[in-house]
Amino acid sequence: MQGAQRENQGRILERHRRYRAIFISDVHLGTRGCQSGLLLDFLRDHDADTIYLVGDIVDAWRLKQAWYWPQQHNDVVQKLLRKVRKNVRLVYIPGNHDEFLKSYLGIHFGGVEVVASAVHVGVDGRRYLVVHGDAFDVVVRHARWLALLGDWAYETALVVNAGLAAIRRRMGLTYWSLSRWAKLKVKGAVNLIGDYEQALVTEARRHGADGIICGHIHHAVIHDLLGIRYMNCGDWVESCTALAETYEGEFELIRLSHPAEDGVRDLVSLAEAA
């Protein structure tokens, strides 16, 4: 891609596809914003030899404040465990919202490997460091109270989004996300994303890796703009995206339409590695 991100190609991917590896992050089970139904659709239609859960799969922060765990969230857990029973390798890298699992690093739970980080070796032999990314977020590391405040603000923005979406639908307008707009347009937020990506790329170089795979900031992307491949899985709250490696060694970002956008659940390729 000559160091440039390839934008939305609008290609519909066939259902029931199998990949060499799938990377999923920031599901936030235990919150009302979690798009568990769309994730179940994705897991039913897609398999892989290895599935990496790249942190914040369960949101213990939110569960400590108020318990919310509908059947559909339990179904996601059961679906993942059924894949393990079918010989899918499942690697769980805890994030900041499910940091309680960091006490169990190196332990297998029913075939689920819990590790602090992983190295994924691609078809072409390139090595990709896989981390959640919270360790490289200055706010999370040094100002936990601010991180909690930001988490509350994000949840509030999602509630506002739902109201705006209903009003815009009645007016015949398309879906528009306040939280996504703020993330991509507010100068401070854009700068934080840039700083975060640079920190992750630096860490990959420190490990002698050829690329980095992460989550945490809910911003799905594949690019080589910093001299080495940076890939972020996105999330299952707004973007509803997963990263996948094909058997040919190509990496794809796959997105399911958010129900507030158009209700369509076809899978569309957002970006693809050269």
Task: Give a quick rundown of the structure.
The protein is of the alpha/beta class and 274 residues long. It is built from 7 helices and 14 strands. It is globular.
Number of helices: 7
Q: CATH H level of the domain at 11-134 and 211-272: which superfamily?
A: Metallo-dependent phosphatases
Task: Classify the fold: give the CATH topology of the domain at 11-134 and 211-272.
Answer: Purple Acid Phosphatase, chain A, domain 2
Low-confidence stretches: 1-14, 139-150, 262-274
Shape: globular
Helix content: 25-40%
The major sheet is characterized as: 9 strands, mixed
Assembly classification: single chain
State mean pLDDT (0 to 100 scale). 79
The total count of strands amounts to 14
For this structure, what is the CATH class of the domain at 11-134 and 211-272?
Answer: Alpha Beta
H and E string: EEHEHHEEEEEHHHHEEEEEE
Can you list the strand order of the major beta sheet? 1-14-13-12-2-3-4-6-5
Q: What structural class should be given to the helix and strand makeup? A: alpha/beta
Intertermini distance = 5 Å
> Which band does the percent of strand residues land in?
15-25%
Question: How does the SSE layout of this entry go?
Answer:
Elements: E1 11-12, E2 17-24, H1 36-45, E3 46-53, H2 60-65, H3 71-85, E4 89-92, E5 108-109, E6 112-114, E7 118-121, E8 127-130, H4 138-142, H5 144-170, H6 178-185, H7 187-206, E9 211-214, E10 221-223, E11 229-232, E12 241-245, E13 251-256, E14 267-272
Parallel strand pairs: 2-3, 3-4, 4-6, 8-9, 9-11
Antiparallel strand pairs: 1-14, 2-12, 5-6, 7-8, 10-11, 12-13, 13-14
Helix pairs in contact: 1-3
